[in-house]
Write a structure and sequence with these properties.
Number of helices: 6
Structural class: mainly alpha
Distance between the termini: 27 Å
Number of strands: 0
Length: 184
C-alpha cells in the first residue's frame, strides 16, 4: 500500500472534500477557525496555570485565589465556543455512524447535506439568541459575584464562536453540494 493511500484514508472525508471542492472563502474560514482554536488553547493553558496556582496557594498558604470558580466558568464558556468551528472543519465531533458508514458515497453526501442544513438552522437560532442574551448582559451591567468581571464580553466571544461554527457548518454543506454535483 502506498503511503499516499494511507494518508488519504486516515484523512476525514470532509477534509478531503474541502481540499477538492473548497474555495478561497473556505480556506479563509479555516484559517479564522484555526485562530479561534488557538485562542481556546491559550485559554486552557491560562486556566490550568490559574488552577495550579490556586491549589498551591490553598495547600501551602491556606489562601486560595478569590474568584477561581468564576474564572473557571468563564473560561469553559470560551473553550467550548471557540473550539466548535475547528471541530466542525476537521469533522472531529463525536459521531455514531452505524448507518452512515454503510452508505455509498452519494448517499453519504446527501445525508451530510441534510444534517448540515438542520444543524445550520439550530446553530443559527442559537447564535441569534446568544447575541440577544449578550445584549441583555451588556445593558444590565451583569458581572460575576466575587471579581465583578463583566459577563457580556464572554457572551460576545460565545456569539463569535457560534457564528464561526455556523459558517463552518455552511461551508461543509457547500463543499458537499459541490461534490455531489461535480462527482456524478
Amino acid at each position: 500500500m502506498d503511503t499516499a493511500d494511507t494518508d488519504a484514508s486516515s484523512t476525514p472525508p470532509i477534509v478531503r472534500l474541502h481540499e477538492r471542492h473548497g474555495g478561497r472563502i473556505d480556506r479563509t474560514l479555516q484559517r479564522v477557525n484555526g485562530v479561534l482554536h488557538t485562542l481556546a488553547g491559550v485559554t486552557m493553558v491560562l486556566l490550568l496555570l490559574w488552577t495550579v496556582g490556586d491549589i498551591i496557594a490553598r495547600t501551602l498558604f491556606s489562601r486560595p485565589f478569590p474568584g477561581t470558580v468564576e474564572l473557571t466558568e468563564l473560561a469553559v464558556v470560551m473553550l467550548v465556543y471557540l473550539g466548535l468551528a475547528r471541530a466542525e472543519n476537521a469533522d472531529s465531533h463525536i459521531t455514531v455512524d452505524l448507518l452512515f458508514a454503510r452508505l455509498d458515497a452519494r448517499a453519504q453526501l446527501v445525508l451530510r447535506i441534510a444534517a448540515g442544513l438542520v444543524s445550520a438552522a439550530v446553530v443559527g437560532v442559537l447564535t441569534w439568541r446568544l447575541a440577544l442574551f449578550a445584549g441583555q448582559l451588556a445593558s444590565g451591567g451583569f458581572t460575576t459575584g466575587v471579581l465583578r468581571i463583566p459577563l457580556y464580553p464572554v457572551a460576545i466571544v460565545g456569539v463569535l464562536g457560534a457564528a464561526a461554527f455556523l459558517l463552518a457548518i455552511l461551508s461543509n454543506v457547500v463543499v458537499a453540494v459541490r461534490a455531489l454535483v461535480t462527482d456524478r
